[in-house]
Amino acid sequence: MIYVTSADPPAQVQKEKNVGKEEHRLPKSVLHSDPFGTLGVKSIPKGKLSVLEAVTLLDNHKRSPKEWTTERIAKEYTVELNHVISMLHYFIPFNLKIIPSKEQQSTHITAGTKK
């Protein structure tokens, strides 16, 4: 037989764990068409991002890098500057291009003229 004995940590240690709670903030981006509520994040710890916020800030920086600088992103989303620099270096949003089928190409409209 094996006997296991354990004891709870002292009350002072438990209180110290609760003292250092993280600050939270409201999300900057919200997905309105989320029927199951899986992406509906209510609060985000400071220094962290939701998936939707990360995709949004990457796209904003890609579209207008002069407006959405690393410093502005770090301040706006309360994230460390070195984390923002790493995100912008390693994560690049992709472009989605839909290639029409041959049937759709015959009715393709460009520059106000019908082909």
3D structure, described in words:
With 115 residues, the protein is mainly α. 38% of the residues lie in helices and 7% in strands. The chain contains 5 helices and 4 strands; from the N terminus they run H-E-E-H-H-H-H-E-E. The chain has helices spanning 11-19, 51-63, 70-77, 81-90, 102-105; strands spanning 24-25, 44-45, 109-110, 113-114. The strands form 2 sheets. It has a two-stranded antiparallel ribbon with strand order 1-2. Strands 3-4 form a two-stranded antiparallel ribbon. Strand 3 and strand 4 (113-114) form a beta hairpin. The longest helix has 13 residues, at 51-63. The chain is elongated.
Key descriptive features of the protein:
mainly alpha; 115 residues; 4 strands; two-stranded antiparallel ribbon; two-stranded antiparallel sheet; 38% helix
Give the SSE layout.
Blueprint: H1 11-19, E1 24-25, E2 44-45, H2 51-63, H3 70-77, H4 81-90, H5 102-105, E3 109-110, E4 113-114
Antiparallel strand pairs: 1-2, 3-4
SSE ordering: HEEHHHHEE
What would you call the shape? elongated
- Terminal Cα span: 84 Å
- Helix fraction, binned, reads 25-40%
Uncertain residue ranges: none
Mean residue pLDDT? 75
Q: What integer value in Å does the Rg equal?
A: 24 Å
**Amount of beta strand:** 5-15%
Number of helices: 5
Give the tally of β-strands.
4
Described by strand count, sense and barrel closure, the largest sheet is: 2 strands, antiparallel
The side-by-side strand order for the widest beta sheet comes to 1-2
Task: Give the structural class.
Answer: mainly alpha
